[in-house]
Structure prediction request, 316 residues.
Amino acid sequence: MIARGSLALALALLAAPATAAPSQVSLDWESAPSCIDATRLGAAVEATLGHPAFCATTSCPSRIEGRVRRVEGRYEAVVRAKRPDGTTFAERTLTTEGACHQLDDALVVVVALLVEEVTTDEGKAAPVHLRLPKPLAPVEAQTPAAPTSVFGGFGVSLACGLSPGCGPAVLVSAGLRVSPLEVGLTVRAEAGRRALSSGVGAELTTTSLLLAGCYAPSLTAALDLPLCAALGVGNQVASPVGLASTDPRSAALVVASASVGARLRLFTPWLHLRADVGLDAPLASRTWVLAEPGGGTSVLHRAGLGPTFTIGLQLL
Prediction:
């Protein structure tokens, strides 16, 4: 909604020995509700000039017209000074991407200058002495929002510790980045690896789901250094090898992980090559054992602390 006001101020005398010239300018002002209105603008202009500046619309030969509107996501103020014959003497346009009140101080100065110019000899500018009641309020710098993006990726890994020995694994990940922070989910599937005693035992296949949080500062425009910590759950399946039983057994797994890596931008802004070195630490896992003929048992595998080396592509 547009609020319209018309300012009429009576002729007054300055307190100084000299007498102020009669006001010859009226103020015709339209503004959006959150912007400076005619009354406040007129009072601020007169305080700046140090003398009465405006008169009633019907008794003034010249006028200042102003309109402040919201235009394409920003506030735009257009101020015109008009001579008695209705021709435009001067026009000024001010804009701001921020709040409308950020235009207030600039509008006061612009209108004060136009008042002084339009009341001189047919618009010929004379020296103007402004008495600013306070410094112009600085416009606060707007902190740019952190860039947000969704990412996905896949890779291969050499993993040790959770399954017997060291072996390959594949990873698929997806997450959200609010630079420089990232949070994401990774599914990691390790190839089956055998734990044997005298030729019999089991082939263990481990799959885990990890929730990771990363701090990934940019070293250069093309290189990031992700530092990540993750917590996840998994499932470990043991399929008998060389045993009479063919029924696989499974056990739950809880694992924590930490890693440091490097992410290098390739040919386009969204394609990256990523490499990480990490360490897996099982928090809960099952110890797999083999029953011996004499009634004893031998440990086939117990998940332990182990390193991981990962390389892959990431779409960011």
User: Anything to note?
Assistant: The chain is about 10% helix and 55% strand. The CA atoms of residues 233 and 254 lie 5 Å apart. The mean pLDDT is 82.
